[in-house]
Amino acid sequence: MAPSRRRARSSEPAADLLTSLPPPLLDSILTRLGLRDAVRTSALSRAWRRRWVDLPCVLLRYPGNISNFSIHSLDKHSVRRVDDWLIALCNRGVRSIDLQAPGLAIHSSVFLCTSLVCLELHLCSIPPLPVEFTGFPVLKQLKLMVVKFPPNGEIQLEAIINASPLLDTLTLSYVDTRSEALPGWVIGGGQSPEPNYRFQ
């Protein structure tokens, strides 16, 4: 009986020690590797399978442009990566950002992505415009849904729209400008003969 018990124990899968490491430690290890070696860690265990994808260094080390960037769900580990991703996108020629970040205050670098053609922000807090903001020269579509601006955000929203000369589609749904009294808005963005502006 004793030998069979020993055999049963030995056939049990060994505990995956890697999964017991805290996520910040896993990330710290990965950031010390080259990109190729970081990708290879996917074979180590489930905890490592796609962890390299979340690292900001992936965007920073990628040599080419990134046309589209989209996030529709964030786990607790990815939430702290969003600022790094947005900063990394600034110089990557990104043309489309679609970000759904419930309750998250996003980084102001999103307003420095001057190659944007489409910007969609959902369920997040909008930061104040950075002093370096010069506008969105090629932005055609702006969609803001269930977002919160800083106090007197209507001024900032007007500044964004007026600094987007090619804007032809504007969707505002449940936008909180944190202002008690809204002045009369003058929306001057867009050179399209028939701009598509929707408010809710």
From TrEMBL:
Organism domain of life: Eukaryota
SUPFAM superfamilies listed in its UniProt record: F-box domain, RNI-like
InterPro entries per UniProt: F-box-like_dom_sf, F-box_dom, LRR_FXL15/At3g58940/PEG3-like
Protein name, entry field: F-box domain-containing protein
Span of domain F-box/LRR-repeat protein 15/At3g58940/PEG3-like LRR: 82-174
Cross-referenced Pfam families: F-box, LRR_At5g56370
F-box domain span: 18-56
